[in-house]
Amino acid sequence: MTNTIANIKAWFVEALPEPTDKNRAVQIGCHFEEASEMCDALGEGKGSSDIHDIAEHFKCLEGVAHQEVDRQELLDALCDQIVTAVGVAHMFGMDIESALTEVNRSNWSKFVDGKPVFNERGKIAKGPNYTEPDI
Hints:
By secondary structure, this protein is an all-alpha fold. It contains 5 helices and no strands. Helix 2 packs antiparallel against helix 3 (45-60). It starts with a helix and ends in a 27-residue tail after the last helix.
């Protein structure tokens, strides 16, 4: 798993070597967007709608200032989310390590000539060579 996380981090470093406050806000919004999709997958539409609204809120912010964040608490929460995500996958008998490898491969296919493509809101978009993950 460590190599997979290192490869995912490498993708972000390549895409955004010096993240801005706006980049941080967009990424937090994307994180909540994935939680909304999890609610949809579990058939929890109401929760999905609420979380989707939070995701959109962050994606529309001008930024999340680096110095205004409790970095220790945020890092703890992110680590706990990774651990619980692995646990949920285990509980459902899913091969999360292989799936993460495939999602990372797919993310690299978003790049065009080695550079990320961004949409109008600053989110990394799917370029013309994008291929969906086969999970």
